[in-house]
Structures are given as C-alpha cells and as structure tokens.
Amino acid sequence: MEVFWVAIIFSFSNAILEELVWRGVLLSRFTEQLGEKWAVIITSLGFVLQHYSLGFPWPVCIGFAFGGFFYAVVTIKSNSILPAIIWHILLNFLMVFSGVIGN
C-alpha cells in the first residue's frame, strides 16, 4: 500500500512541476522567440539533459526525449498544459510500478 501512495504523490508533484517549467514557461517563451518547431526541439533536449543530470542512464533518457517531445506537441496542439500534465501523471505512475523510477 505504501508504494501506491509514493506513486500518487510523486506522479502528481513531479508531473505538475515539470510541466509548469518545461511546457508552461520554457516552451511558451521559446515559441515566442524561435517558433514552435525550435521550441519543441530545445525543450525536448533540455528535458533529456535534466533527467540525465539526475542520474538516469542514456537509454532511459532517450525514452524521456520522446516523452518531452510528446508533451510539447500535446501542449501546442491543445493550447493548454493540462493534457500534458495528465499524460505525465499517468506515465509517471506507470514508471513507478514498472521499476524505472524508485529503484
């Protein structure tokens, strides 16, 4: 039961904070300055480097690259970070229970 609460707390807090920073602030600022294409590329690469700096191995970080790209595109297409937050929460939850996060 304890891992369930850890998964819930981590999934919500991490997804909300990361999406506010990466898609809410950085993606919108880079979009204004450089356009959508470059904003997606830069924030996706930054998302990878952030996770690499936290100690994740490169193969896992490549997965995060796809996640960052997906969240950025979802945010741009929906004109809202809410769908990206929801997807991020769900994927975080799955990563906790798969052992990718928390081991």
Q: Strand share of the residues?
A: under 5%
- Portion of residues in helices? over 70%
Question: Which regions contain 5 or more consecutive residues with pLDDT less than 50?
Answer: none
Number of helices: 4
Report on the biggest sheet.
none
Summarize the structure in words:
The protein is mainly α. The two termini are 17 Å apart. The model has no long low-confidence stretch (mean pLDDT 93). The chain has helices at residues 2-34, 36-53, 58-78, 82-98. It is built from four helices and no strands. The longest helix is centred in the first third of the chain and has 33 residues, at 2-34.
Short description, anyone?
α1 packs antiparallel against α2, α1 crosses α4 and α2 runs antiparallel to α3. The protein has 103 residues and is mainly alpha-helical.
What distinguishing features does this structure have?
about 100 residues, mainly alpha, about 0% strand, globular
Describe how the helices and strands are arranged.
Layout: H1 2-34, H2 36-53, H3 58-78, H4 82-98
Helix pairs in contact: 1-2, 1-4, 2-3, 3-4
